């Protein structure tokens, strides 16, 4: 957004800030051409009955859904095509459309069709006179009033504008179109006419916006008023136009549009002279709250957050004005005896022993190689905790973990666990510690999650160490080795905050020091808002924990995985939280550390349930990868033509306050919800014909799913070939194919059977032929007792042809030189015709028939005579006895000799 005045202004008292006093703020967003507006000369902003915002500019009409401006241009055949696109005014009509004034003409815009109607020309024809419109107004009876340039008025009803139109010279009683914008009258030293906006909210806080763009606030209408923001707009061009469903105020100007969000901050910033990162917050036994600012090396002490803090000096005294403690404090803790303990970087450990209500004696323990066992192992101490035996445990950033056996002693004894051989060297950089029972210390390290098992006899040399790390391919291992914080809860669960894998949990039935520890992950893959977890705290409820991330906080219910987030829209600024553990102040009030100070916040101020539920609308569609086409907010169905099977549907929840935090889900028909994140579109490819129902819903800014489901019916029109009539044709075609194939198979089988029968018959004729017989026709001259081919199976021409073939066969059966060419000549056909004819009649080629005839004659002679095999071979046209034997065996599957032996007749 160009020149986005993400201008959050709030009053910070330099000395005292009430802990939970209301702090007014004004968030201003500016929109012009760089944000998608077609022109920065905004002449009017209107909200239609669906909650959509419309902008009239000197370059047409714009629709805004909170995300994107859409420029509405008259279509080529639109009646508005004959006019310019200088929109000077728009007003919602009672019929749901918009009255538009283009220059001095009046048109009607249909929100369902996005078409313009030239009402002006129709009115001039009906009233039989020309006129120019200077204003669009609304009468008290609901009729639309057109003020003409000549001073006359035209009254018309929205439902039947042309027929109801009538001139009047008297000014109708007009309805003030925005009665909620100026309610306080003359207030705060301003006259009502000098104000664009005035009201008192539910808390009694008064708000004013002047015509010169000054935004003021006061605890009540009586004042005193303070300037909290200024709108940077050309003088005299600001006009208050409308208020959206979230209560945002929209103003127009010659330099774009402005959206103002007014309200009370849910938090109070704790004033500090030098903005600094907060490293620790702790409550001492007296109920005072201590806050450490590491950059300014200061420690602030609050007896009451509604009072000014006192500052701890290096002399151990509490001072009413700011002083530096002299060392950057990274951790703080109080022991049961009332001593305060500070962990510093790089100045070691401090013990503050109370001397009076306002003074402590300060003892500094720094690492000293000359004093082993009497000083800490390192001087950068990030955490301090106490166990039930009164021992103190220190987390150091370079040397691992120290145990202080007698911390209140004049000379405490330090046990450095890093000196033991089994201590993992990858875990020497320790951020936080937590104690489970009496014998297990857990540590958040930069190298993983470390557990320290203490022996029952308190022999530290028998301490066991186990470092849990991330194992590639094992989803049950630790998600990330950069562990930031550890939180055991009352149910025996252990929560581990990681730097880039969200929160990991060990269920109560799994021991933290077990090699088989299986972690449950809560990260963005499982629906968490972010993957960074800096610190954790119990919320006081049965299950929820508070998770502090770098840019937001959220509560997590580990049983359901449900989260409640507190994003930037809750704070009305970009927060940068520090690693300091949250300090619960009571109920749902917390003290949180930032990178630039500390805040106290009441999380119950997240009153999203009281806000209007933003409706979801479908904004545009793209068919078959064509550009987006706008659709009306009232569209409830889309019909796709037979050649349109791919569609992308865009949608938006009309929440003009925190759109960047909204999440979306969709389902098709009655399927489960699918998460889209912040994506506002869904695409379907290769859709089958039919009717589908697309359901879309959104969350609020805290991640809670709303009851704002919107349904769009998609009707995919089938092609003719996908209709029932086509399927009937398919069935008939399949049946026809089946019948045809079956008939063909049967026919072929019948033909082959006839060919085989005819072939066998002619071979029998060859076998029964004697040298003295004369064959002029095939079967007729054969003896009566022999089987002959049926003349009914052959035509007279085919019978004559086969007679010539048989004459040739019988005459040349013993001639080894006779060939197919001779047969063709004898039958008066070509070689190819002979081949084709023989194949069609007998199913074999002439050569095969000739050879089979010789083999058949030979077989007959072998079985019925005693003639030598060589003589039979010669008589049957085989000049080579070996070749005869080979051919015979191939045809009869046995040798001539064996065949004679098996078939010899007596």
TrEMBL record:
All residue ranges annotated as the HTH araC/xylS-type domain in the record: 803-902
- Composition bias, Low complexity: 776-792
Give the signal peptide range.
1-21
* A Pfam short name: Y_Y_Y
Task: Report the transmembrane regions from the record.
Answer: 727-748
InterPro entries named among the record's database cross-references: Homeodomain-like_sf, HTH_AraC, HTH_AraC-typ_CS, Ig-like_fold, Reg_prop, WD40/YVTN_repeat-like_dom_sf, Y_Y_Y
Q: Where is this region: Disordered?
A: 772-792
Keywords associated with the record: DNA-binding, Membrane, Signal, Transcription, Transcription regulation, Transmembrane, Transmembrane helix
Q: What SUPFAM superfamilies does this protein's entry cite? A: Calcium-dependent phosphotriesterase (SSF63829), Homeodomain-like (SSF46689)
One MF annotation (Gene Ontology) recorded for this entry: DNA-binding transcription factor activity
Which superkingdom does the taxonomy of this entry point to? Bacteria
Q: Which named protein is this? A: HTH araC/xylS-type domain-containing protein
Q: Which organism is it from?
A: Duncaniella muris
- Tell me the lineage of the source organism: Bacteria, Pseudomonadati, Bacteroidota, Bacteroidia, Bacteroidales
């Amino acid at each position: 957004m160009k020149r986005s005045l993400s201008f959050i202004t709030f009053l910070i008292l330099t000395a005292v800030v009430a802990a939970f006093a209301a702090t007014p703020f004004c968030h201003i967003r500016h929109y012009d051409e760089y944000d998608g507006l077609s022109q920065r000369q905004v002449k009017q902003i209107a909200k239609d009955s669906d909650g959509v915002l419309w902008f009239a500019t000197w370059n047409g009409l714009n629709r805004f859904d909170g995300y994107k401006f859409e420029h509405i241009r008259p279509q080529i055949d639109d009646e508005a095509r004959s006019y310019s696109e200088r929109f000077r005014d728009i007003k919602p009509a009672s019929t749901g459309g918009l009255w538009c004034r283009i220059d001095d003409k009046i048109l009607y815009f249909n929100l369902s069709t996005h078409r313009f109607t030239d009402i002006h020309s129709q009115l001039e024809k009906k009233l039989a006179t020309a006129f120019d419109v200077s204003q669009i107004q609304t009468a008290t009876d609901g009729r639309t009033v057109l003020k003409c340039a000549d001073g006359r008025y035209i009254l018309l009803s929205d439902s039947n504008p042309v027929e109801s139109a009538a001139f009047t010279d008297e000014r109708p009683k007009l309805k003030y179109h925005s009665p909620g914008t100026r309610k306080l009258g003359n207030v705060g030293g301003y006259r009502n006419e000098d104000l664009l906006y005035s009201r008192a909210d539910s808390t009694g806080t008064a708000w004013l916006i002047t015509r010169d763009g000054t935004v003021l606030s006061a605890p009540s209408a009586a004042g005193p008023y303070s300037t909290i923001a200024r709108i940077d707009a050309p003088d005299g061009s600001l006009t208050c136009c409308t208020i959206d469903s979230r209560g945002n105020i929209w103003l127009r100007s010659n330099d774009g549009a402005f959206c103002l969000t007014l309200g009370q901050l849910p938090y109070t910033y704790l004033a500090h002279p030098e903005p600094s990162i907060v490293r620790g917050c702790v409550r001492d036994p007296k109920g005072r709250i201590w806050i450490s600012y590491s950059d300014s090396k200061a420690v602030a002490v609050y007896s009451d957050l509604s009072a000014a803090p006192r500052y701890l000096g290096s002399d151990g005294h509490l001072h009413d004005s700011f002083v530096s403690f002299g060392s950057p404090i990274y951790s703080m803790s109080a022991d049961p005896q009332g001593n305060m303990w500070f962990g510093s970087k790089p100045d070691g450990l401090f013990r503050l022993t109370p001397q009076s209500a306002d003074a402590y004696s300060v003892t500094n323990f720094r690492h000293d190689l000359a004093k082993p066992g009497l000083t800490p192992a390192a001087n950068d101490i990030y955490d301090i905790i106490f166990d039930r035996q009164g021992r103190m445990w220190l987390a150091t950033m370079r040397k691992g973990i120290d145990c202080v056996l007698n911390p209140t002693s004049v000379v405490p004894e330090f046990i450095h666990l890093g000196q033991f051989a089994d201590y993992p060297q990858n875990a020497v950089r320790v951020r936080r510690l937590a104690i489970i029972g009496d014998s297990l210390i857990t540590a958040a390290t930069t190298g993983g999650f470390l557990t320290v098992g203490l022996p029952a006899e308190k022999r530290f040399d028998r301490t066991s160490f186990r470092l849990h790390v991330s194992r590639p391919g094992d989803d049950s291992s630790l998600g990330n080795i950069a562990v930031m914080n550890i939180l055991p809860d009352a149910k025996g669960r252990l929560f581990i905050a990681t730097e880039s894998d969200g929160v990991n949990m060990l269920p109560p039935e799994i021991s933290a020091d077990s090699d088989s520890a299986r972690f449950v992950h809560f990260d963005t893959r499982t629906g968490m808002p972010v993957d960074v977890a800096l610190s954790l705290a119990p919320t006081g409820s049965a299950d929820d924990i508070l998770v502090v991330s770098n840019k937001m906080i959220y509560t997590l219910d580990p049983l359901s995985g449900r989260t409640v987030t507190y994003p930037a829209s809750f704070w009305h600024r970009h927060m940068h939280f520090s690693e300091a553990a949250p300090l619960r102040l009571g109920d749902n009030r917390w003290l949180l550390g930032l990178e630039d100070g500390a805040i106290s916040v009441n999380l119950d101020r997240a009153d999203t349930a009281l806000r209007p539920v933003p409706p979801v609308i479908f904004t545009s569609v793209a068919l078959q990868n064509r550009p987006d086409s706008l659709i009306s907010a009232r569209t409830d169905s889309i019909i796709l033509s037979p050649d349109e099977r791919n569609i992308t549907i865009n949608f938006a929840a009309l929440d003009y306050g925190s759109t960047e935090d909204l999440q979306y889900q969709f389902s098709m028909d009655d399927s489960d919800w699918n998460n889209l994140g912040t994506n506002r579109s869904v695409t379907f490819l290769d859709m089958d014909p039919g009717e589908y129902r697309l359901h879309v819903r959104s969350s609020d800014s805290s991640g809670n799913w709303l009851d704002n489901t919107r349904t769009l019916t998609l009707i995919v029109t089938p092609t003719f070939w996908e209709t029932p009539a086509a399927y009937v044709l398919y069935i008939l075609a399949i049946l026809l194919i089946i019948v045809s194939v079956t008939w063909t198979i049967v026919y072929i089988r019948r033909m082959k059977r006839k060919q085989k029968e005819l072939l066998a018959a002619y071979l029998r004729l060859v076998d029964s032929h004697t040298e003295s017989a004369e064959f002029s026709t095939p079967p007729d001259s054969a003896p009566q007792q022999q089987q002959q081919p049926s003349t009914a199976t052959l035509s007279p021409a085919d019978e004559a042809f086969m007679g010539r073939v048989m004459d040739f066969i019988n005459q040349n059966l013993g001639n080894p030189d006779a060939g197919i060419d001779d047969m063709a000549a004898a039958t008066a056909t070509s070689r190819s015709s002979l081949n084709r004819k023989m194949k069609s009649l007998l199913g074999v080629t002439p050569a095969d028939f000739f050879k089979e005839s010789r083999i058949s004659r030979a077989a007959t002679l072998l079985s019925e005579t005693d003639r030598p095999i060589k003589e039979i071979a010669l008589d049957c046209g085989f000049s080579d006895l070996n070749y005869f034997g080979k051919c015979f065996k191939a045809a009869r599957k046995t040798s001539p000799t064996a065949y004679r032996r098996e078939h010899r007749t007596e």
